Amino acid sequence: MAKRGPYEKGEAKRAEILHAALEIFAAEGYRGTSLRKVAARCNLSLPGLMHYFGSKEDLLTQVLRMRDETARLRQDERTDPESYREIIREGAKTPGLVELFVSMAAAAGDPAHPAHRHFAERYPALRERVAAFVQERMDEGRMTTVIPAERLAVLLLAVADGIQLQWLIDRSVDMEQPVDDLMRLLGPARAAGT
Question: pTM for the full model?
């Protein structure tokens, strides 16, 4: 049965807030953006905005959850390596979201933090998807390694997340290159001169 009345309006407003926050953080950065700006974009006061979320950290966690869901849907549509590169390129265009991700990932180490559950769910799901991607390439002979797909997925995610941290410190770092280099190392052995 479809939701109606105040609940439906509340969910619509919550979605509007999340979309506005995502856009603002992407364009202006995590540290440089106040929640008042998000509230103003949604025609709300700050207390009105916070009515929809348990805390600022809860709102930020939900922004990350929405960003991850959008990326997952794109990966479901395209499972080739280029779709992963596009997500990395998007990160370079939205430094505020990279900063938000890195900051919230660090804070999520505390089990009481609102982001803890998100990251505790995120990584097993990502490892499973990346392991399936890797295993498919191994089965096709497009990737050669003695490392099992599940362990290689952990390594690939570590590289992808770690390069984001390095990029925040030094924007001259190419976020795509380490992932490409690792994939090249795992590619099938080539004969000399090819």
Answer: 0.79
Closest CA to 79 of 140, 166, 120: 140
Q: Which of 31, 152, 36 is nearest to 98 (CA)?
A: 31
Q: Name residues whose C-beta falls within 8 Å of residue 121's C-beta, 6 or more positions apart in sequence.
A: none
Helix 81-93 to helix 149-169 angle (10° resolution) is 20
DSSP string, 78-115: --SHHHHHHHHHHHHH-HHHHHHHHHHHHHTTSTTSHH
Q: How far apart are CA 63 and CA 159, in angstroms?
A: 23
pLDDT of residue 120: 96
Rg (CA), the chain: 19
Q: How far is it, in rounded angstroms, from Cα 105 to Cα 118?
A: 9
Tell me what pLDDT residue 183 has: 83
For residues 1-11, give the mean pLDDT: 64
| Phi and psi, residue 93, nearest 5° | -85, -10
**What average pLDDT does the chain have?**
85
Give the Cα separation of 19 and 15 in Å (integer).
6
Among 79, 88, 31, 73, smallest CA distance to 56 is for: 31
Q: What are phi and psi of 49, to 5 degrees?
A: -65, -45
